[in-house]
């Protein structure tokens, strides 16, 4: 529910400044490690599927 705290910040810059003052620079990187883990898995799976399909297509077309 975004409307409940709509007056908490004036704008985006005010939000960033308040977060910096309250929680420090580390607050902007919360959740980075789990996200990077997921992205690495996604990219690895994508390349594996792509490589498998390319091998299959090369066998069919050549």
From TrEMBL:
Q: Where in the cell is it found?
A: Mitochondrion membrane
The family classification in the record reads: Belongs to the mitochondrial carrier (TC 2.A.29) family.
- Domain of life (superkingdom): Eukaryota
List all membrane-crossing ranges: none
Taxonomy, top ranks, is: Eukaryota, Metazoa, Ecdysozoa, Arthropoda, Hexapoda
Solcar repeat feature ranges: 1-56
Query: Which named protein is this?
Result: Citrate transport protein
Keywords tagged on the record: Membrane, Mitochondrion, Repeat, Transmembrane, Transmembrane helix, Transport
Could you provide one GO biological process annotation from this protein's UniProt record? mitochondrial citrate transmembrane transport
Q: Which GO terms describe its cellular component?
A: mitochondrial membrane
Cross-referenced SUPFAM superfamilies: Mitochondrial carrier
Q: Which Pfam families match?
A: Mito_carr
What are this entry's molecular-function GO terms? citrate secondary active transmembrane transporter activity
Membrane topology field: Multi-pass membrane protein
């Amino acid at each position: 529910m975004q409307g409940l705290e709509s007056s908490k910040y004036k704008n985006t810059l005010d939000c960033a400044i308040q977060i910096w003052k309250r929680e420090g620079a580390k607050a902007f990187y919360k959740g980075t490690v789990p996200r990077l883990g997921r992205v690495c898995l996604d990219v690895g799976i994508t390349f594996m599927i792509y490589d498998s399909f390319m091998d299959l297509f090369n066998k069919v077309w050549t």
